[in-house]
Amino acid sequence: MFLLVIWFILILIVSVMPVTVPKTYLPADKIAHFVMYGLTSIFVFRFFAQKTTHKRAFYTSVALASMYGAMMEVVQHFLPNRSFSFGDMAANTFGAFLGCVLYMKGKRQ
Length: 109
Hints:
It is built from four helices and no strands. By secondary structure, it is mainly α. α2 crosses α3, α2 crosses α4 (86-108) and α3 packs antiparallel against α4.
């Protein structure tokens, strides 16, 4: 639980830091969101899988990671050097879902 809380704090810190990356047409930002929230859902899944069924742990982890990602986007809306993005929210949610699916598939083999 301690490491999970540290991970969520790390995401918060990274989410509120000013970003001075030049705008490009590369989807690096979306890839970073995808990977970060994919890992988040895996970490949350591993925590809840010890306490409940894998099905419930899956839904909980994807929902929690996606909601946290949405909350971080709302926070960014109010920061001067950050901005709200529906695209980032989509990358967060898709990353959370696919990260957890791939982790569960890997665990079955």
